[in-house]
Design brief:
Belongs to the peptidase M20A family. This is M20/M25/M40 family metallo-hydrolase. This protein has 450 residues and is α+β, with helices and mostly antiparallel strands. The chain is built from 13 helices and 19 strands. α1 crosses α3, α1 packs across α13 and α3 packs across α13. The chain is globular and about 80 Å long.
Length: 450
């Protein structure tokens, strides 16, 4: 591929997107989940604000519920003010990274071997860079899109958005006045499918649904006592039994509309049979190899124990013991899930939600979906968009509370051999340079035809 500066066909946004992504990664915006130790969001947000201000935007900087939790908003007016506004949103925070584990420093933003490296490269400073590059290009060139576009760069997504989108929706809903549709992260990336005839097809997965996100605390209590005595009840034992039952439990298979539609498209392209009524959908998925990882977690609710705490001395049986369980629940399954959990943990262990964010699902149709598909096909004739469900969660959970229809669409054409899912929160997180160029072109087409 010719260097960017040597290609007269390359647009302004495409020419600077790699530099912008690299610069964003160099801001250490690690979100520990604690106010005292989370850092960098204000500095990064103010830098984004400066980049937008210098090309003529009237930006608004907002701190969401706590000092330093920076958010930036910029609105580009469209040709038809009567149409609903399209919001393009990205979060500036990232999960922490341990430098000694990485091949390069996680906050170097290094551009090497055809990749931009660093924490946030795919989650999600890649999309933030594309957003910023396109926002700047549109303003500099005087581009008027079909409808208003709101560019939103927000804080605290990696800890559930309490000091980010959740706070903004609760306290500053005016920022989203007129927004009817939104696109955000974890969608639009390509998945290469091998066909029976030896050819390949790229599916671009558009997120139309996501499971709920709930962090549940389990607590067992019993009488404290000396470690050398006999005890009829032991809080640690009661909790351990409950955690073991819950952690080893397999929840029932439930096929949501988004997953069923994705599997239908996948079966068509891969040339395999798929029966949505089959009791062995797991077996059918296993035949597809690594693809199974993408959808396997969206077939069932999950409850994974992640933290344990009990005791303060080796010879003292403690009065209480606690565990934290990461719960991801399919749309429409919350009440049934909680009943199942109660049966598993039993009467001597109590539960409470530390964080509880609803699931979300929309349909894969309408003008916005048509615009996504057209944008992909304009730059990859061998592509096809398909809906899918995300097993995790995004800021869409909060924005949906305002009646906004949300999708995940951050387009990237990926090398078939790249294990993209493993890069999220993983060591040596990186995004291909060519993918950023492709994504910028596709996103430009989408925003100008949506």
């Amino acid at each position: 591929m010719a260097p960017i500066e040597d290609s007269v066909a390359v647009g302004r946004a495409e020419s600077e997107v790699v530099d912008l992504v690299s610069a964003l990664i160099r801001f250490d915006t690690s979100n520990t989940g604690e106010l005292e130790t989370t850092k960098g969001e204000r500095e990064c947000a103010l830098w984004v604000k400066d980049k937008l201000d210098e090309v003529g935007y009237e930006t608004e900087y907002v701190e969401s519920g706590a000092p330093g939790r920076g958010n930036v908003f910029a609105r580009l007016r469209g040709a038809d003010p009567a149409r609903g506004t399209l919001m393009v949103h990205g979060h500036l925070d990232v999960v922490p990274a341990e430098p000694s584990d990485w091949s390069v420093h996680p906050f170097s933003g290094a551009v090497e071997e055809g990749y931009v490296w660093g924490r946030g490269a795919v989650d999600m400073k890649d999309m933030c860079g594309m957003m910023l590059a396109l926002a700047r290009q549109f303003k500099i060139e005087g581009t008027v899109p079909p409808r208003d576009i709101l560019f939103a760069f927000v804080a605290d997504e990696e800890a559930g958005g309490k000091y980010g989108c959740q706070w903004l929706v609760d306290h500053r809903p005016d920022l989203f006045d007129g927004v009817t549709d939104a696109v955000g992260e974890v969608g639009g990336f390509s998945l290469t499918i091998s066909r029976a005839d030896g050819t390949e097809k790229r599916l671009y997965l558009v997120e139309t649904a996501e499971k709920s996100l709930g962090w549940m605390r389990l607590t067992a209590k019993a009488a404290a006592g000396h470690g050398s005595f006999l005890h009829d009840e032991n809080a640690v034992t009661m909790l351990a039994d409950a955690v073991s039952r819950l952690g080893n439990h397999t929840f029932p298979l439930v096929l949501s509309d988004s997953v069923a539609e994705f599997l239908t498209v996948l079966a068509q392209e891969a040339g395999v049979e798929f029966d949505p009524d089959s009791p062995d959908i797991d077996g059918a998925l296993a035949k597809l190899g690594s693809i199974a990882r993408i959808v396997g977690a969206t077939l069932r609710d999950t409850a994974n124990p992640t933290m344990l705490r009990a005791g303060y001395k080796a010879n003292v049986v403690p009065q209480s013991a606690e565990a934290v369980v990461d719960c991801r629940v399919l749309p429409g399954r919350q009440a049934a899930f909680e009943r199942e959990v109660d049966e598993l943990i039993g009467p001597h262990v109590t539960r409470e939600w530390i964080t509880k964010l609803d699931s979300y699902e929309t349909t894969f149709d309408g003008a916005l979906v048509d615009a996504m598909n057209a944008a992909v096909l304009a730059h990859d004739p061998n592509g096809r968009t398909a809906p899918y469900m995300l097993s995790g969660g995004t800021d869409a959970k909060a924005f949906a509370r305002l009646g906004i229809r949300c999708f995940g669409f951050a387009p990237l054409q990926l090398p078939p051999e790249l294990d993209f899912a493993a890069l999220f929160h993983g060591v040596d997180e990186r995004v291909p340079v060519d993918s950023l160029h492709f994504g910028t072109r596709v996103m430009e087409h989408f925003l100008l035809h949506s």
